[in-house]
Amino acid sequence: MHVYALSLRVTRPAKRHLPLSIFDKLEHEPSLNTREFKAPSAALGKTAKDHRFGPIRVDWVDFENKEMENGADLGKGPATASFTATSETKSGGTLISEGIVHLYRTDPSASVVDDYIEDDTVLAVLAIPAWMTISDFLTFISPAIDGFMHLRIVRDAMPSRAIALIKFRTSQYANDFREEFNGKFFNSMEPETCHVVKVSSIKIETPDLVTGQFPPIPGSATELPTCPVCLERMDTAVTGLVTVPCSHTFHCQCLSKWENSRCPICRYSQTAILSGSQPSNRGRAASSANANLLTSCMECSATSNLWICLICGNVGCGRYGRAHAHAHYQVTTHLYALELETQRVWDYAGDAYVHRLIQNRADGKLVELPSASITSGSSGLDTSRGLGPGPADTMAAEKVEAIGIEYSYLLTSQLDSQRAYYEEQLESMRTQLASAYNKIDLRSQEMEVVDKQRQLAEKKLRDEMEKREAEAAKERMKIEKKAEKALELARKFEKELREEKMVNEGLLQNLAAVKSKSEAFEKEKAEFLGRITELEDQMRDLMFYLETRDKADQDGGELAGGSVELVTQPKASSMKKKKRK
């Protein structure tokens, strides 16, 4: 069983968000403008422009995860031919960026398929017909739409090429859808069938910012080419393929519809082989003009002085134009290029035309084949003179046939050498890229370790800061409480101080009053003491008088009947007497 991988290689959009996964939530753009994607992004400045790049559009439908009313077997009922958008579905369209869609088929022998599949709920419908619209496709798959989670229809620069990516809710829904719709006709009137395959991975890749190169293709994956006629993927496991002698491959049905016997790809680079008649100069000029109108430079659309690469078929203008053919050689190192006008082959390594030699039948010598312009010019003159083809024309046709065979051998050998050279270069590049990716992985691991250490250090620092902040907050609260208590004590002390001052003032006033009273009392005391002294003197004198009188009365005699008079002495004398006592 083959497993497929899808890769969207896009440029980095300047003003758009690039989703990481195709099933991420996408924006809806009502009016899609593809002009902004005509020029390549600046991120690809170091790589050669790929003419296959174009705008990649994604039409999306998201289904809400709702409960099923009829149980788990709801998607196995009879088919209904209608699809109705409900409130549980969201749809729209968006432009991802400029790029190209690559589809790879993995080698089953490389690894076990079940181990390789990243998500077994993703399927892809490889080729949706160009005549089928999104509504028609939803109607076609409506019997199993209850198991859908996301639907993405990817379209690249080719409008007739589309791939549908479906993500189911469970792997059982995916298996049922694949069994029911794989190989089923889209329409009873058309031959196209539905090709459902398993998808291992879907990647959106962008060029590296340093080298400008896209990641390498996995060694076990093979990219599926596209048919040049129908532009659909060519896969031998899906449909039959046919390879023509010029090594170009097509679908069998596509080549059967091609009525012309020439190759649909390289028919513009071939000239008509003369067999029986030679066209006139006027007809040749007209056909050359038509060929120039059909063929143009892939880079600048020039129609003159064109060269085609004999290795890959790239058409570019010559050195006298914008030298896109020489630029193609510098990028790819493809040595040989064919000038469309003269049919001469240029060797870039030798920087000269390739001398094509043929063997002359007359003498067996090798002679140089003249250019197609000289041959056709001389043949035109001969034809104007004669009435029909002659022996010279037959000889020229045989020479052209012989040189064609010889040129085919030369081209095959050069292609083999180029293939071997490029395989060796690719293998060397893969080895270098693998080594670079290993180094990137190591650097990424180191960065992850450093990032984890940084996160741990930041977390530790943050925890310590939070702890310190908490401690500081606690200390601040304690200090604030102490400050409040100190303020309260200060207010209390200030109040007590005021009260003490008032008490002191009252005491001082009382003390002054008491002092004044004490002085007055001392004065009064002194006065009273003076009076007491006088009274004591008087008392003593009176007692003396009384004692003397009583003594005189008792003794009788001379002193009887006498009178005693008290002599009042001055105060000073009294004081002296007192002192004497």
Automatic annotation (TrEMBL):
Entry coiled-coil feature ranges: 442-538
Residue ranges of the region described as Disordered: 553-581
Record GO cellular component, one term: cytoplasm
Gene Ontology MF term list: ubiquitin protein ligase activity; zinc ion binding
Single Gene Ontology BP annotation: Ras protein signal transduction
Residue ranges crossing the lipid bilayer per the database entry: none
Boundaries of every RING-type domain copy: 227-267
Listed InterPro entries: BRAP2/ETP1_RRM, RING-H2_BRAP2, Znf_RING, Znf_RING/FYVE/PHD, Znf_UBP
Domain UBP-type, chain residue ranges per copy: 264-373
Keywords: Coiled coil, Metal-binding, Zinc, Zinc-finger
PANTHER family tied to this protein: BRCA1-ASSOCIATED PROTEIN (PTHR24007)
Entry protein name: Cytoplasmic Zn-finger protein BRAP2 (BRCA1 associated protein)
Lineage, uppermost ranks: Eukaryota, Fungi, Dikarya, Basidiomycota, Agaricomycotina
